[in-house]
Amino acid sequence: MTKDPNTTENREAPSPPFIDFPLPPKGQKAFPGCFVYPFFLFHMLGFGGSGFFLAYGEESTDLFFLYIHGGFAILIYTVFYLAIFGFDEVKWMFINAGLGLFGIYAQIDLLLAMFGKRAGDFPVAVHVIPFLYYVLYTFLLYQMVIDLSRARNNPTRRRKVELVYVLISLLLYGAVWTLSR
Fold first, then answer.
1. Is the domain of 123 the same as that of 157?
2. Are the beta carbons of 71 and 129 closer than 8 angstroms?
3. How far apart are alpha carbons 54 and 85 in whole angstroms?
4. pTM above 0.85, yes or no
5. What whole-number distance in Å separates Cα of residue 110 and Cα of residue 52?
6. 127 and 64, same structural domain?
7. Environment class of 129 (CB within 10 Å of its CB; exposed 0-12, middle 13-18, buried 19+)
8. pLDDT per position as a tens digit, 92-141
9. Do the domain assignments include residue 2?
10. How far, in Å, CA of 117 to CA of 58, rounded?
11. How big is the chain by its Cα radius of gyration, in Å?
């Protein structure tokens, strides 16, 4: 009889500072719980907001400091995302981010317009941290919608929820695009 390497009894205890998240039953994703979304949405809004203002604020921030401040936080968030949502979900977060760069750029441009600035006013290197925060934040919102609609383990419901999510996103992106013209 072959032992399942994904069971808790066959997994080595992690050495500090790693967190030992309990494994869900085989074939089932773990539901992050009601605490995860409010905590990370609030926490990331603070760090993402500070990264946004460091990158685009009135005072020019040293690019090295911006990358250290934002890069460290983004690394930590990504580690938590991997532990909570799994590799495949996080992989798709980055794939979708790559596909959605123009949409993100338009939304960053709209946000900057509220402060009398444009995305084109800044070098591309400055956009990296705000873009990554945006990717992490929208991924968390998407995961929250999947869980709140109880669609994570229900393929039929998930397809419907994803369709509605895409349609609402397109409406919002269309509104952003219209407002920015």
1. no
2. yes
3. 29
4. no
5. 13
6. yes
7. buried
8. 788 777 767 777 887 888 888 888 998 889 888 888 888 888 888 888 88
9. no
10. 10
11. 19
